[in-house]
């Protein structure tokens, strides 16, 4: 049996709950991962093709004999690159469909259908200006309607390029244009990858990866950016606030509701419903002290960024949350919801409530969400949870761990913080100058984004936490999103005390600006906030993103969305370190292309490094090399 890291975690609450779940005879992700060993080598290397019914075909690499081509003649390079491209397209589709739903929600808000409204007028006007929408003598609703329609057009417009590409530095846009990978419309790029990778179509690995890059860029600079920006318009742009994180945020004597998944449309309505006096009174009538709302995965990130709602945990903690026996309802929308939840709730009173047509789970209660009746439906869901409180029968065990930290560092919030040290006579408010000055002076060596999921191939959370600690120790500012953000806040890296882990330069910056050294920038789609920040820094310095002393890492990634994120980051000129190898190792050619040759074309590249300490060293090396090239 292969050596694995089952049930290891650097998070005490997770270790305790895992042990407890074992005692209770419950099956969790770690048990299933162990049962899966050894995992299929062909799949792991990307060498299995099922693209037509002549297959499945697999390329045998470990022995001299055995097939070296698929039945149609597809080589390992073709098969591996096609599989990778399809995963990227699926990831881009998932993020972008989320963005489409948000654009639709803004459209309804503009028509005054339903409960949403424009909360961030400034951001709406900023986007309107960027997109040449007339604002003079028009109501906010008229502007919002036009922006929403234009955002919806981004998915399928027949001509032109994505509007948000205009945010990228000019040098970057020229690279994309010359390579023919400037995305035209989001759906079109995803469809094109699916077409090109159909049996008997594109067999050239470079061309396949180029097309995948185009689809990935349509995610980062398209679907995800629309998701982030329009969510801010509807629900407000996050500002810093304090919150708590880990399973210890659950409260024994309260009705506990966990919202889990990705889209803020439902969870925002549940935040409102959970404060409804009638529902709180109903909860008290059931014997509870009140209603306690907590978030999981990226839904958790969305509502903590905007409301400071406590974060119950990340991807690997979803089953463990139910095993506390204290969750009265787990309400899910889309993405990263383990189908196993419907099994584990059978042992508890917990109601698993699915809400999206795109993500039903057998055994769950389905209460379809409708953007036009958001709060009404949210109240029904909360009522369901409240009435379930009295059905608690099992022993309750909530681990006491809960960490404190600051969240809510949107791009706009970061600019506002930088204003504190900006000479307002020389520079207008909202400049990245202080950040650039700190990097140029060397007080700050650079910045790194740590993003992504949990994966049993890496000890839970320790990829994120070890890497973050190693980087801040070396004066590298860390920004984070997704489940990486959960890991960092649980480890105390978003509290002011975390300056104790920092090098002298970063500690000085953090104390001056009153920020933690690891900044929570939001959910997975909010990596687009990082793109906007990097673009503005590059533009301020008169250069390209690929020239900056920055890097990205996904130490515990697992999803197709993460593959899309990785490729759009590389295609935006960023060095990306992955803690888990993607399924491309079956082709040395494709590995060499993505980890080396692609840098000459796009300025960014992938690196695979499973040891987070070594990953930090590689990031430091990259950042110092970029500094040297900049002469700083
Ligand atoms: Fe096999 Fe080619 Fe069909 Fe893939 S497309 S399953 S390699 S025959
Ligand atoms: S939730 S995609 S496990 S980060 Fe965005 Fe976490 Fe990864 Fe899902």
UniProtKB/TrEMBL annotation:
Stored Pfam families: Prismane (PF03063)
GO MF: 4 iron, 4 sulfur cluster binding; anaerobic carbon-monoxide dehydrogenase activity; hydroxylamine reductase activity; nickel cation binding; peroxidase activity
Amino-acid positions noted as binding [Ni-4Fe-4S] cluster in the UniProt annotation, renumbered to this chain: 262, 298, 336, 453, 483, 524
Keywords: 4Fe-4S, Iron, Iron-sulfur, Metal-binding, Nickel, Oxidoreductase
Class of the enzyme per the UniProt entry, highest EC level: oxidoreductase
EC code: 1.2.7.4
Catalytic activity, reaction form: CO + 2 oxidized [2Fe-2S]-[ferredoxin] + H2O = 2 reduced [2Fe-2S]-[ferredoxin] + CO2 + 2 H(+)
GO biological process: generation of precursor metabolites and energy; response to hydrogen peroxide
Binding site for [4Fe-4S] cluster 1: 40, 48
TM helices/strands, residue ranges: none
Cofactor: [4Fe-4S] cluster
Chain sites annotated for binding [4Fe-4S] cluster 2: 49, 52, 57, 72
Quaternary structure, from the entry: Homodimer.
Family of the protein in this entry: Belongs to the Ni-containing carbon monoxide dehydrogenase family.
Protein name per Swiss-Prot or TrEMBL: Carbon monoxide dehydrogenase
Organism: Thermovenabulum gondwanense
């Amino acid at each position: 049996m292969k050596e694995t890291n089952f049930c290891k975690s650097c998070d005490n609450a997770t270790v305790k709950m895992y042990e407890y779940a074992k005692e209770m005879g419950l099956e969790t992700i770690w048990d299933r991962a162990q049962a899966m060993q050894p995992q299929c080598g062909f799949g792991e290397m990307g060498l299995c093709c099922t693209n037509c019914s002549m297959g499945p075909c697999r390329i045998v690499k470990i022995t001299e004999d055995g097939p070296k081509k698929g039945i149609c003649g597809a080589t390992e390079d073709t098969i591996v690159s096609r599989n990778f491209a399809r995963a990227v397209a699926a990831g881009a589709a998932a993020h972008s469909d989320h963005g489409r739903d948000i654009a639709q929600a803004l459209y309804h808000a503009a028509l005054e259908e339903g409960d949403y409204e424009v909360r961030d007028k400034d951001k709406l006007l900023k986007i309107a200006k960027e997109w040449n929408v007339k604002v003079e003598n028009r109501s906010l609703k008229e502007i919002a309607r036009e922006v929403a329609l234009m955002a919806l057009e981004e998915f399928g417009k027949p001509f032109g390029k994505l509007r948000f590409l205009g945010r990228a530095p000019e040098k970057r846009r020229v690279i994309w244009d010359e390579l023919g990978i400037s995305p035209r419309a989001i759906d079109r790029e995803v469809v094109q990858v699916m077409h090109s990778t159909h049996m008997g179509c594109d067999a050239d690995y470079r061309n396949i990866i180029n097309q995948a890059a185009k689809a990935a860029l349509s995610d980062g600079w398209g679907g995800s950016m629309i998701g982030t920006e329009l969510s801010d318009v509807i629900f407000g742009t996050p500002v810093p606030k304090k919150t708590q994180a880990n399973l210890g945020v659950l409260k024994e004597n309260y009705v506990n509701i966990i919202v889990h998944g990705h889209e803020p449309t439902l969870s925002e309505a549940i935040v409102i419903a959970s404060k409804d006096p009638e529902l709180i009174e109903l909860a008290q009538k059931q014997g509870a002290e009140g209603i306690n709302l907590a978030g999981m995965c990226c839904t958790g990130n969305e509502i903590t960024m905007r409301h400071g709602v406590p974060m119950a945990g990340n991807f690997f903690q979803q089953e463990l949350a139910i095993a506390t026996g204290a969750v009265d309802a787990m309400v899910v929308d889309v993405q990263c919801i383990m189908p196993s939840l419907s099994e584990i709730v059978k042992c508890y009173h917990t109601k698993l409530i699915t809400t999206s047509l795109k993500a039903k789970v057998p055994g769950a209660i389905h209460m379809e969400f409708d953007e036009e009746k958001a709060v009404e439906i949210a109240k029904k869901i909360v009522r369901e949870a409240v009435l379930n409180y009295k059905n608690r029968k099992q022993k309750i065990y909530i681990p006491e761990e809960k960490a404190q930290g600051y969240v809510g560092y949107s791009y706009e919030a970061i600019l506002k913080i930088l204003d504190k040290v900006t000479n307002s006579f020389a520079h207008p408010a909202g400049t990245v100058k202080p950040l650039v000055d700190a990097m140029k002076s060397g007080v700050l060596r650079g910045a790194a984004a740590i993003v992504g999921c949990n994966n049993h191939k890496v000890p839970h959370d320790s990829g994120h936490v070890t890497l973050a600690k190693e980087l801040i120790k070396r004066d590298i500012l860390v920004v984070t999103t997704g489940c990486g953000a959960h890991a960092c806040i649980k480890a105390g890296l978003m509290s002011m005390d975390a300056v104790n882990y920092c090098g002298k330069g970063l500690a000085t910056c953090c104390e001056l600006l009153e920020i933690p050294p690891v900044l929570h920038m939001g959910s997975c789609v909010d990596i687009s906030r990082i793109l906007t920040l990097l673009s503005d820094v590059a533009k301020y310095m008169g250069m390209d993103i690929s020239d900056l002393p920055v890097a990205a890492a996904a130490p515990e990634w697992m999803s197709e969305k993460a593959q899309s994120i990785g490729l759009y980051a590389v295609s935006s000129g960023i060095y990306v370190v992955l803690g888990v190898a993607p399924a491309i190792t079956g082709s040395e050619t494709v590995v060499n292309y993505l980890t080396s040759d692609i840098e000459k074309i796009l300025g960014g590249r992938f690196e695979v490094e499973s040891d987070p300490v070594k990953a930090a060293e590689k990031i430091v090396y990259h950042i110092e090399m970029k500094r040297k090239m900049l002469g700083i």
